[in-house]
Specification:
Elements lengths: L2 E6 L7 H11 L2 H4 L1 E6 L9 H22 L3 E8 L1 H16 L3 E9 L2 H4 L4 H13 L2 E4 L2 H10 L5 E3 L23 E6 L8 H13 L4 E6 L5 H10 L6 E3 L5 H10 L2 E4 L9 H8 L4 E3 L5 H4 L7 E2 L5 H12 L2 H18 L2 H16 L1
Parallel strand pairs: 1-2, 1-3, 3-4, 4-5, 5-6, 7-8, 7-10, 8-9, 10-11, 11-12
Helix pairs in contact: 3-4, 8-13, 11-14
């Protein structure tokens, strides 16, 4: 049996990469390959500064020991193109190549390669060389594919989008909701400024000033939660906004199913957000900015609506337009569900990696 060693954060951590790893371990791949995990990074760990330093120094040695013990044919390194992640993970790539292993280098979002070290020619050349060290670089979006082709000609590249396990289909959303009922918005994700959360609050204030009956659920935690709560209070929106905290499993499914629209005007270096796929599977169309892999998934006006980032006025205008056309929300919800069922299931994800692994070892 072929052994695949998957490098990434703890499967118990709350992150997109952890979700990806769990999906692979729980997929049919686990019946065909021996999948083993090696934890890198601090996500999912409780450690002091001293223990973090010890881990940083000894983790490469532990990795080498695991290579000797498990004898994997393929190292599947999961990282993101951000300075901290790149420099942390490059050592594992080098060790794997010295050990003669095949390497899958999967990039989960972050900067485009032209931008990571754009002011340093030497580091940019090193990045290009390190990418060529991998046997294949796996990306999430067509935008990344074009950028990597231009940055490092001759690099073997594959686009394998994220996927989700489908929950029960909320078929009651096939019928448009009553316009007299409040429009229910939801944001699910990290409460960080670059996700557009303050623009959401400002857009909500604008709509309420226009007499719109809008409700918003914010599901998640993050560094901006205190400031965000203060902004809600200062904007006199306490009756319109509910902070749900981090949600999982059935609680998250319920939040998606009760919402009419998913608002996500992000300007972060996105890959392919799981929240986007979850919202679409729940027939909750997204109102979202066109970044990362999002344009690969959504056709504007068919599965959701694109809005410019950093523009609460445009966000408010788009939501008000949809509030006045509940039938369009319903049609986009249907198209969204069909889109995910056809292209973004874990079965498709497992099949993509099955083919990739076999091609590497044959």
């Amino acid at each position: 049996m072929i052994t695949i060693m998957l490098l990434g954060p703890s499967p118990a951590a709350v992150s997109g990469v952890s979700t990806h790893l769990n999906q692979l371990f729980q997929s049919p791949l686990a019946d065909e390959f021996k999948l083993v995990h090696f934890q890198v990074g601090s996500e999912g760990r409780k450690e002091s500064a001293a223990s973090k330093l010890v881990r940083f120094l000894f983790s490469p040695i532990q990795f080498l020991g695991q290579l000797i013990q498990e004898k994997p044919q393929i190292i599947h390194l999961n990282t993101s193109l951000e300075p901290k992640s790149y420099w942390r993970d490059i050592i594992y790539l080098i060790i794997a190549r010295i050990a003669g292993k095949k390497v899958v280098y999967q990039v989960h979002g972050g900067a485009l390669p032209q931008d990571l070290f754009k002011n340093n020619m030497l580091l940019t050349k090193f990045l290009r060389l390190s990418l060529h060290t991998a046997d294949v670089v796996v990306l999430l979006s067509q935008e990344e594919l074009a950028a990597y082709r231009n940055f490092a000609p001759g690099l073997r590249l594959e686009v394998i989008p994220n996927a989700i396990e489908l929950s029960a289909d909320p078929l009651w959303k096939k019928a448009p909701s009553n316009r007299d009922k409040s429009l229910k918005l939801v944001y699910v994700g990290r409460l960080a400024m670059s996700k557009g959360i303050f623009e959401i609050i400002e857009a909500l204030r604008i709509m309420c000033n226009h007499g719109k009956n809008i409700r918003l659920v914010l599901a998640g935690t993050g560094p901006e939660e205190v400031r965000l709560r203060a902004r809600v209070n200062d904007s006199d929106l306490k009756d319109n906004v509910r902070f749900a905290g981090a949600v999982f499993g059935e609680d998250k499914d319920k939040i998606w199913e009760e919402a009419d629209l998913f608002v996500f005007p992000t300007y972060h270096w996105e890959g392919l957000p799981y929240a986007l796929l979850e919202s679409m599977a729940a027939r909750t169309p997204p109102v979202v900015s066109s970044v990362g892999a999002i344009p690969d998934v959504i056709e504007n006006g068919v599965h959701g609506v694109f809005v410019p980032s950093r523009s609460p006025e445009a966000l408010a205008e788009a939501i008000e337009r949809l509030d006045n056309d509940r039938a369009l929300i319903c049609r986009m919800g249907e198209a969204s569900r069909q889109r995910v069922e056809k292209h973004y299931t874990v079965a498709r994800l497992a099949d993509d990696f099955r083919k990739l692994y076999h091609n590497l070892v044959n």
